[in-house]
């Protein structure tokens, strides 16, 4: 059932190109220029009436929501708040009838996420669910449901479910942009063209897994490290850090690169690994200067960069991993893949149970 892979997690990492294709399938018009989300029952008037969006989820699904916030704000120009469900449900959030609440849950059964959904509905908000399981509690109770077509995810550490959630957010962002006319048709068609290239681009990353295995093996000798990035790179840094923690038990922290100097930089000492994501063109110089700051204090820096930037970045880092060129907003769908593989191979190198990490369950149906 592992189809020749040693672990479900590795199999699921390799299933991502298919998960991307399946999640896009049937949701893009034949001419490739428009998003068709027939599952969304909101009228144009209702969409125009959305004053704010709240994205609520747990763990990895929450990290997908962090990217979703940037996507929706950038494409549809609607303000978006994000919350972990266990906080949202108890903080008496301001939920109005013109709030769209989006819950994200692979399983659709996470107790806190379900409670957040119910709280939102009680307050009269429209609730949209992004979930991988048809007929799950979240799917049944939400007003609108976008099913991610990742297929069953067995490994406790979520991989293809996360990236399929990103695809769902891209589709939703484009859908809202088209309805609200915040972006023109040509621009939307251009993003869709780039989205269609993602599956092959992920394949090209997977072909370089052996490089990441070596990186992971050297990381596995450390007990602390940092992930840094700005913008959506910071969102991906948080996911990379969680993935590494949960299956390798190595402590890491994800930091917004510009925030380091407000305290955390004190922890940077000789030899500490720093994984820096630097894929966002508009933030490139800023992140590069943060990389130089940690490097000057002895950090061993692995930079996840855009292909073509090798020459400029190589002087400031120890190692580089290049992802294929795409639009800045879409980069998370590529840049997270090397981080998943690093987590996998680090866990393997340390001899842990990759698919069933200690203390964790696949579906958290109790608070
Ligand atoms: C981490 C992981 C968890 C889940 C979280 C939410 O790899 O899998 O953080 O993302 O428990 O689960 P769902 O998406 O089923 O609500």
Automatic annotation (TrEMBL):
EC nos: 2.6.1.16
Keyword Transmembrane in record: no
GO molecular function: glutamine-fructose-6-phosphate transaminase (isomerizing) activity
Domain of life of the organism encoding this protein: Bacteria
Active site: 362 (for fru-6p isomerization activity)
Keyword annotations: Aminotransferase, Cytoplasm, Glutamine amidotransferase, Repeat, Transferase
Subcellular location per the Swiss-Prot or TrEMBL entry: Cytoplasm
Occurrences of domain SIS (ranges): 43-182, 215-357
Reactions that this protein is recorded to catalyse: D-fructose 6-phosphate + L-glutamine = D-glucosamine 6-phosphate + L-glutamate
Chief site of localization: cytoplasm
Primary role: Catalyzes the first step in hexosamine metabolism, converting fructose-6P into glucosamine-6P using glutamine as a nitrogen source.
Quaternary organization: Homodimer.
Protein name: Glutamine--fructose-6-phosphate aminotransferase [isomerizing]
Organism name: Paenibacillus plantiphilus
Phylogenetic lineage: Bacteria, Bacillati, Bacillota, Bacilli, Bacillales
Residue numbers of the full-length protein present here: 244 to 610 of 610
């Amino acid at each position: 059932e592992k189809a020749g892979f040693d672990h479900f997690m590795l199999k699921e990492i390799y299933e991502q190109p298919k998960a991307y294709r399946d999640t896009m399938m049937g949701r893009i018009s034949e001419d490739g220029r428009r998003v068709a989300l027939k599952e969304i029952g909101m009228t144009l008037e209702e969409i125009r009436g959305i004053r704010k969006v709240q994205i609520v989820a747990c763990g990895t699904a929450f990290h997908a929501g962090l990217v979703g916030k940037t996507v929706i704000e950038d494409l549809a120009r609607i303000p978006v708040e994000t919350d972990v469900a266990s906080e949202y449900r108890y903080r008496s959030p301001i939920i109005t009838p013109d709030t769209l609440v989006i819950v994200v849950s692979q399983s659709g059964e996470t107790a806190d996420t379900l409670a957040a959904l119910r709280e939102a509905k009680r307050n009269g908000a429209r609730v949209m669910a992004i979930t991988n399981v048809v007929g799950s509690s979240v799917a049944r109770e939400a007003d609108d449901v976008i099913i991610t077509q990742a297929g069953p995810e067995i490994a406790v550490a979520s991989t293809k479910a996360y990236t399929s959630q990103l695809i769902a957010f891209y589709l939703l962002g484009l859908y809202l942009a088209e309805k609200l006319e915040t972006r023109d048709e040509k621009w939307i068609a251009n993003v869709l063209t780039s989205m269609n290239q993602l599956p092959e681009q992920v394949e090209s990353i997977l072909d370089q897994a052996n490089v990441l295995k070596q990186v992971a093996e050297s990381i596995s000798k450390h007990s602390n490290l940092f992930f840094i990035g700005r913008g959506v790179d910071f969102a991906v840094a948080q996911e990379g850090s969680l993935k590494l923690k949960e299956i390798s038990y190595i402590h890491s922290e994800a930091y917004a690169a510009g925030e380091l100097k407000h305290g955390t930089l004190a922890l940077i000492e000789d030899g500490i690994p720093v994984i820096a994501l630097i894929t966002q063109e508009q933030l490139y110089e800023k992140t590069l200067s943060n990389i130089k700051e940690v490097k000057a204090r002895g950090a061993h820096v692995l930079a996840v960069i855009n292909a073509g930037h090798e020459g400029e970045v190589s002087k400031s880092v120890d190692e580089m991993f290049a992802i294929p060129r795409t639009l800045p907003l879409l980069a998370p769908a590529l840049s997270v893949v090397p981080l998943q593989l690093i987590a996998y191979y680090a866990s393997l190198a340390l001899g842990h149970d990759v698919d069933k990490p200690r203390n964790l369950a696949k579906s958290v149906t109790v608070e």
